[in-house]
Amino acid sequence: MSFVNLRLADPLVRAIADRGYAQPTPIQTQAIPLILAGRDLLAAAQTGTGKTAAFALPLLHRLSASRTGGPNREVRRPVRALVLTPTRELAAQVGDSFRAYGRYLSVRTATIFGGVNIRPQIDTLRRGVDILVATPGRLLDHAQQRTLSLADVEILILDEADRMLDMGFIPDIRRILALLPRQRQNLLFSATFPDAIRTLADGLLNQPAVIDVAPRNTPAARVSQQVHPVERSRKPALLSHLVQAGNWGQTLVFTRTKHGANRLAQQLEQDGISATAIHGNKSQAARTRALADFKQGKVRVLVATDIAARGLDIEQLPQVVNYDLPHVPEDYVHRIGRTGRAGRAGAAVSLVCADEAPQLHGIQRLLGHSIPSRVVDGFGPIGSYSPPLAATPRSRPRQRPGR
Predict the structure, then answer these.
(1) Residue 306 near residue 254, CB atoms below 8 Å
(2) Which DSSP category does 84 fall into?
(3) Which DSSP helix (H) or strand (E) runs through 225?
(4) What is the pLDDT of residues 330-384, one digit of tens each?
(5) Which three-class secondary structure string do you get for 260-300?
(6) How far is residue 65's CA from residue 193's CA, in Å, rounded to a whole number?
(7) Which conformational region is residue 322 in: left (phi greater than 0), alpha (psi within -120 to 50 degrees), or beta?
(8) CA 93 to chain CA mean position, Å
(9) 242, 224, 384, 351: CA torsion to nearest 10
């Protein structure tokens, strides 16, 4: 099947070709016809399988087809589609995707999030936009200042809805829902289908179609995984060794804490490896600059907390490292999903010390299999760090990750 078979407008097919995509992914094949038909949708897919295009393409098609006036005629542009995302990085990524796919259409997209000056955003909204991509907090700021109206929204998209639950955004989302028309199309996209998401969907969606194109909480099939046992004090040296000996290019490294990210980036710099950190204590300008430098190859290693686990879309990212294992096993899947995207191969390495045995145990039980282990020469074994795989998984309360 090709994108032409999905009956998308010719300008969209042209923009898709510009990006080098020839065939739709499974989530796109299933979701696009349903969205074009006006159905509410609850959709889950592995990260990196094209969820953004799955809703952006049909949304652009519908809005462009129902525009009033010609492409050169200035008409009132109320916000007709609202996309909510949990993080600034994800909002920027989604906004960029809408602009890329809609480059040959007369559809305006704006992105608003916190941590930056609100005045340029106000000016953009006053000029009129068709599609608004926003984080919940900044959207409510604009609503309170009456710098935008949501009275004409026809389509609502909640992207990475499970992450919004984790980050405590549900009260904000309920406040936003109260500002929207009751009659609208609702699309809920998520990497996973936890029970809390299904509860949210029950109250939001109207007889939704349900798509689940992959087993829950499973990483992309083309991501190779490996554990390197190491003493905690030797982790910085081991990471430097792996990057240099393996001649790794772009490498995304996850730490558990913000201070740990800063310290590790500084240590890598001292070892002659260009590195920068991204986390919640950084200003938005610093976060944007760090991500841009990493994407452009100006720095070799980006050290991040879990704030980046969902919001980074880096083409052909070859390597992800879990410097610290996450406390919540599902976050391991989201982290390593930054590589192996769009059918490409990727590698995920975890540096595991003895006191991280419970986290490793939980991850392996979530995956349903053990992760291969290899001791790196010169860094020594740490003894028994990996408990045997349990026969059945135990429920585990979710914890809010450090951001």
Answers:
(1) yes
(2) E
(3) strand 223-229
(4) 888 888 888 876 567 789 999 999 999 999 999 999 888 999 999 998 886 545 4
(5) HHHHHHHHHHHCCCCEEEECCCCCHHHHHHHHHHHHCCCCC
(6) 32
(7) beta
(8) 8
(9) 30
Beta bridge partners of 281: none
pLDDT by residue (tens digit) across 169-200?
889 999 999 999 999 999 999 877 777 888 88
**291-328: buried (b, 16+ CB within 10 Å) or exposed (e) per residue?**
beebbeeebbbbbbbbbbbbbbbbeebbbbbbbbbbbb
Provide the sign of the torsion angle of the four alpha carbons 166, 167, 172, 177, taken in this order: negative
Phi-psi region of 380 (alpha: psi -120 to 50; beta: other; left: phi over 0): left
Taking the C-alpha atoms of residue 207 and residue 120, their distance in angstroms, rounded to an integer, is: 39
Domains of the chain in sequence order:
3-212 (3.40.50.300), 223-367 (3.40.50.300)
DSSP helix, strand, coil percent of the chain (3-state; round to 5):
40, 15, 45
Q: At residue 138, does pLDDT exceed 80? A: yes
Rounded to whole angstroms, how far apart are CA atoms 231 and 402?
23
- The DSSP letter of residue 223 is E
Identify the burial level of 52 via C-beta atoms within 10 angstroms of its C-beta, where 0-12 means exposed, 13-18 middle and 19 or more buried: buried
Question: Which element (helix H / strand E) includes 259?
Answer: helix 258-270
d(CA 47, CA 219): 8
Cα gap 390→373, rounded to integer Å = 18
